[in-house]
Design a protein that fits this description.
single chain, alpha+beta, 7-stranded antiparallel beta sheet, 3-stranded antiparallel beta sheet, 6 helices, 18% helix
Length: 250
């Protein structure tokens, strides 16, 4: 398995993953890094994630959903809903509806936010043509105030979607946080640490599994901030009783 940032679509098709530098994010997703920097301050006021089953207090989070129409390029926010995953994909937190505070309107209405989500949608459509993408957006902050923070407490996993984008917003005064991507049905894999803000990892969720190792403090105020976006063609993931026409749209 290799990571090639020069052509995100080609790398996704060939390897199931692609790592884009901030410069490549600008060129391939048409999202200037300087404009993206404006959004970073909104990670300073994320509510604490109260659903962690490992008893930790190291994760802060907001969550909102969107629909991207591929023919028109229109991005629209969906009514606020719970985040839900089956236990097949998340053994630690699957099977329960988790209601997080929504992403702030100042973020959602920011043109660079909309351009970034739409740019990813357009890139994924070149890999797999669909009519629309159902997008779940997660702002994460992992801190080290209690000594250790776990970006993926569920371990190596898939998300039950079509594509995943993991973007580093910032890392400050931490060590660790190595990203690991492996073939879902093989042994090949890669390991690396995202350091530069707006570096973005793209994943074909059916073909690879991924995780990020714990972080530890290198000084006071150690944090790792990320934006995780998932794209699914068949509607938002919902509990079995909610499956039906209403669960696929909004």
């Amino acid at each position: 398995m290799l990571l090639r940032g020069e052509d995100a679509v080609g790398a996704l098709q060939e390897f199931g993953c692609a790592l884009l530098t901030p410069v490549q994010v600008e060129h391939q997703l048409h999202s200037p890094a300087r404009a993206l920097d404006e959004l970073g301050r909104f990670w300073e006021r994320l509510p604490r994630d109260t659903y962690l089953r490992d008893g930790g207090r190291y994760r802060y989070r907001r969550h909102s959903c969107f629909v991207y129409e591929t023919s028109s390029g229109r991005l629209e926010q969906a009514p606020h809903r719970a985040h839900w995953q089956p236990t097949d994909y998340n053994a630690l937190h699957g099977g329960m509806e988790r209601w997080f505070e929504p992403i702030e309107p100042e973020v959602v209405n920011n043109p660079v936010w909309q351009k970034f989500l739409a740019g990813l949608g357009a890139a994924f459509t070149r890999t797999r043509p669909v009519d629309r993408w159902y997008i779940e957006a997660h702002q994460f902050r992992i801190d080290t105030a209690e000594g250790i923070g776990r970006p993926t407490p569920e371990g190596a996993h898939r998300d039950g979607v079509d594509y995943v984008a993991v973007t580093l917003v910032q890392r400050h005064q931490v060590r660790g946080g190595e990203t690991r991507v492996f073939e879902a049905r093989g042994t090949a894999g890669v390991r690396f640490t995202m350091v530069e803000p707006w570096t973005t990892l793209l994943l074909d969720d059916a073909r690879v599994i991924h995780e990020t190792t714990p972080i530890q403090p290198e000084g006071a105020g150690g944090v790792r901030d990320t934006l995780v976006l998932t794209y699914r063609a068949g509607g938002f993931q919902s509990p079995p009783l909610a499956v039906g026409p209403a669960s696929a749209g909004f």
